[in-house]
Amino acid sequence: MIQKLALSLLLLANALASSAEELPVEYFFKNYEFSQVSLSPDGKHLAAIAPVGDSRNLVVVDRATMKPLAVTSLTKRDVASYQWASNERLLFSVEEDGNESFALNAVNIDGSKPRVLTKASKGIQLIPRYTRMVDRLKEDDRHVIVTSNDRKAQFPDLYRMDIYTGRKKRLTSNPGNITGWGMDWDHKVRVAMRQVVASDKSDASSELLYRETEDAPWKVLATSHLGQENTEYAGFSADNKTLYISSAVGRDRQAVYTLDPATGKKELVFGHDEVDVGTPSFSPSDHRPLGIGYITDKPHMHYLDTKFGSIQKALDKALPDTLNRLTSLTDDEKTAVVVATSDKTPGTYYLLETEPKLKLTYLAQIADRIKPELMADMKPIRYKARDGLLIHGYLTLPKGAEGKPVPLIIHPHGGPYGIRDNWGWNPEVQFLANRGYAVLQMNYRGSGGYGNKFHVNAWQQWGLQMQDDISDAVKWAIKEGIADPKRVCIYGASYGGYATMAGLTMTPDLYKCGINYVGVVDLDMLEEWDTRHDQEGGITAWFHRAIGDPDNPKDQARMEKTSPINLLTNLDDPLFIIHGRRDPRVEIAQAEHLMSKLNSLGKPYIKLIKKKEGHGFRREANKLELYKMMDKFLKKNL
């Protein structure tokens, strides 16, 4: 009996080891069983996005019976997101084949009275048309407040919308320079963010406007110029008398303050010496501020409310191996949804009852197939760039690789500005680690969360210091004995795709291959696409300051020098090009221009171009095809 048990355990261990060596692509990239789980305002129902057939649909669960009901039946598109408009009705968004324009739909919790409230636009625009709910009216089950840019793409209006018919009544008329609105807790529009563009488009400042009542004149509370420490609206106090603002003025990193509009007095609520902090979350019952999130090496929450601070401590004690976040809260604060995640699991949903005493109940795994014991550790790292700047990042080693050099995937994130890589579940990283590759992600200069100077010092540094930060990550990994210097590949999307092409053409000796996913290759073409969609000059002013102005000879020379399309004679490494034809951010013309130039030079490449995808593939079948091709490409070339 003992011998049989030992044999069984050995077979199991071998099976797990084999699985850890190479799990199917589907293991990582099939649609999740459940995502975006949330509670109705009264707590009687749960909703989630779940696969029904080949599409992601909206599912509602009656908590009295815990029986799920699919309330949508999409077959060719997916539900992208949803919100509770009332206890009886949900709003949900459906994308128009990759162009990032979303139709807004509504349906009752029993699947009745489905309605398309606003249609998605068919065209491809840098700023797609949208209608989004910004405020649920507790006292009115038939209407919500929405923001919509259907009149002017960059400058939205506010409307009161009937969630059964889609009829809208405009609450504010945008004069053509307001980029965002703020309402107090009585749904009165009392804050606005106004864009002011210099006549020569050398600057586009943002003004924080405030008014005492909806009949009072606007006054300017703060002005933020391009490249300077900025101030943004973050909410009202419960009594509607004080503003919460996010500001980096005088401290470089964003912090949260209260601001008395009458006196201009500003008081610090919370800030961090090393990183920017987020904006407050508020109680749905009495509007008191609950907490402020921030990310160092890992995500954290600074609680302003003692009740929820105590709840968080109890959660972390009960679930010590995960990051535990409250993602949905009922109006009476008695019930919440908790998601517990880590670098090795997409997460588990729990139901938390806060009264009469804390009670935690398991709901569902986001992806039950993912076994944490088969996944790799993602570890925060730091290294210094060649100019001494400290760069933060994350290293994921394949299981069993400690102490020996392994093939390395350098994986720069997109953006580039204001975006950062974080610690946590990343299916791409785990897939690559499962194939035996180390994965190094770096928050190069310009990445978000590290303050204004770190951001602005990266302006006009595409292909220069920003690229040096990535090259220095390769050299650090080799020096530390992590990477096999002869087996390094670079893979990135969007700006990461640009960094891929820059790496392959500017420092070809560092890399063995590259994967360019919806990446930029021609900065002049990017400027033309972005400014073509500019309405009042703000996009143009930002682009010319942050990236470059083709009409400035110095800028134009730099942009030509750092556009990979002009350096393709240096390309000697295998290349995989991935793009969606309906990409609104990096137009398909970038990929077509690249492939045409490669063809004329006789440079080989492989490609995956999808007709009904955009800036990153969303459809399950296309994602599976992409990563199977990536798998073969890396096995052949790395």
From TrEMBL:
This protein's UniProt keywords: Hydrolase, Signal
Residues annotated as signal peptide: 1-20
InterPro entries according to UniProt: 6-blade_b-propeller_TolB-like, AB_hydrolase_fold, Peptidase_S9_cat
Domain of life where this protein originates: Bacteria
Peptidase S9 prolyl oligopeptidase catalytic domain ranges (all copies): 427-638
Keyword Signal: yes
MF-aspect GO terms: serine-type endopeptidase activity
GO biological process: proteolysis
Pfam families with a match to the protein in the record: Peptidase_S9 (PF00326)
Name listed for the protein in its UniProt record: Peptidase S9 prolyl oligopeptidase
Organism, scientific name: Thiolapillus brandeum
Lineage, uppermost ranks: Bacteria, Pseudomonadati, Pseudomonadota, Gammaproteobacteria, Chromatiales
